[in-house]
Each structure stands twice: as C-alpha cells, then as structure tokens.
C-alpha cells in the first residue's frame, strides 16, 4: 500500500499494519478515518496527509513542465487507478485544484495505457487486457473500446506482487551464498542496502542479457572482503518461478467473471517496469497464444496516454478522438 492507495480512503487498523511493515515511520488515522504519516523533521513531529504528498508530486511535475514550455501549465489531465471510487477521484482533483490547476479530465490508468498504444482510435469493437505489473502491485483490467469509448468490464489484481518481491528472492539467495562463503551472516544495514541496490541493477540487466555480475565490498566483515557473484537469467527465473506464475491468476479471473474466452481478446497491453522481464512476457504470450503489444515503453505507457488525452483536449494532437469512459460499478477482485 502506498500514499496514492490511501488517498481519500477510509482506512482500518489492518491497513495501517501494512504501512508499518513496509515503511520506517508510523501511520495513524485522523478523526475522519483518513491516513496521516508521522515524520520527524529537525526533532519536530510532523503529520503529513496523502494529499500533501500528492501536492508535492503534482507541483514537481508542473514545475518540470513549465521549464520546457513557453507558457505556464494551468490545466491538467490526471490518471488514477481504475479501482479508485468517487471519493478518491475527488480527493485527487482537489489536490490539483489546491495548486491553482484546472483539472480537464480524470481518466483510468488502463485507459491511458491503451491510448498510448493507439487503441482509442480503432473504429471497430476490441477487447483489451491491460497487465500492469510494477514494483509492488499487479493490476489486470479487461476493457472494451470502440471509437474512443472505453468500458471497464472487470478488474483483478494482487496488491502484494511486484518487482520488489522478485528482488527479495534474489537477495535471499545471495545472502545465503555470503553466509556459506564467509561463514557469517550479513546483518549490517548499510551493506544490505548496497546489496539490494545491486540486486535491482542485476534484475534490470537480466531483462536484456543472460548473465549479470555483482561486485561489492562487505565493509562490516573483517578485512572488508570483496563479494563477487555471477547471476544468470535462469537462476533468477528459477528463484521466482512460483511468483511469476501468479501473474496469470488475475488474467484468468477477469476472463472467467466475464465469461470470455482468451481467444476473444484482441490486444494485450503491458504496463509497468516488471513486465519487461522476459519470462513474464513468455508466460503471457503462451497463455494467450499471442504476442503482447510491447511497442511502448511499459514504464511510460500511462504517462504517454495521459499526454495524448491532454493534447487532444488542448487541440494540439493530430487526432480528434479522445477517451470517453463509460461509468461502471465494476469492483476490483483482490487475489493474494
């Protein structure tokens, strides 16, 4: 769970426990049931709300845009998770309007991703599966689209599956090797953080090549020995085989609840950095017996789609068809 997930939500104690497991700060509820984060700055305790964090992020993006535009950005298009309810969407809009911005449109992230792939401009009815696998969550949406009209038919996902989980498997594997090689466990926080950073690099490199090397000095061990290890893509895939297979579960769920055959799906859209992992792409391809669309950088798909929508509204995009989302009461099915 992130600050974005908690925006505009009435939270319970179980949600706070998730926060406290993931982050090194306390989280409590205000009198209305909204989250607030406890941060200590210069020995003073500060309470930060999710919308405060949202304001900082939006202002940072506006500042970046203003540096590259000849006129100040005053109007915005914002994307939100498809599962956001009306209250969460309104909180998001209020966060932007509090900065003096006019919100022209709020669109769902799967819709934005589909727009990045140009699927809003197809005239005939198409069924699209959007697989969004990021650092910590997996979201799958089944949409239909025709002439720029989008309808969400089903949503499912796993809020505890993502790139960080894959990293943890590889980190544990390497910690075991260190223990056997040096006869002691690695417990120093700084050394473990160095290892985690190298694991992230290895994971990224293994999306493009078959082996990757780790090399780090273990400063907390006597003599500060050098730890070196080569990790193969096969090893990484074996360590995460059960987790990778879980990616298919919400895909099967959205098809089952809509009683749709996988052969009826026209397009599979990949979103999020973790969809770069070759094995995950292979699993999705083999399940549908069809290549997923990888023509857009998965990390950028949602941002590109939002930019296209903004360009169309502003009359700056060479297309007249923008996204129109039909209202739906579909709820996300959570899979663990």
From TrEMBL:
Give the molecular function GO annotations.
Answer: ATP binding; ATP-dependent protein folding chaperone
Q: Which InterPro entries match?
A: ATPase_NBD (IPR043129), Heat_shock_70_CS (IPR018181), Hsp_70_fam (IPR013126)
Entry's Pfam families?
HSP70 (PF00012)
Q: Report the Gene3D superfamilies cross-referenced here.
A: 3.30.420.40, Actin, Chain A, domain 4
Keywords in alphabetical order, please: ATP-binding, Nucleotide-binding
Protein's UniProt keywords contain Transcription regulation? no
Q: Which domain of life is it from?
A: Eukaryota
Which SUPFAM superfamilies does the protein's record reference? Actin-like ATPase domain
PROSITE patterns, per database record: HSP70_2, HSP70_3
Q: Does the keyword Electron transport apply?
A: no
Please report which protein family the annotation says this sequence is part of.
Answer: Belongs to the heat shock protein 70 family.
The name this protein goes by in its record = STCH
Query: Which species expresses this protein natively?
Result: Acanthosepion pharaonis (Pharaoh cuttlefish)
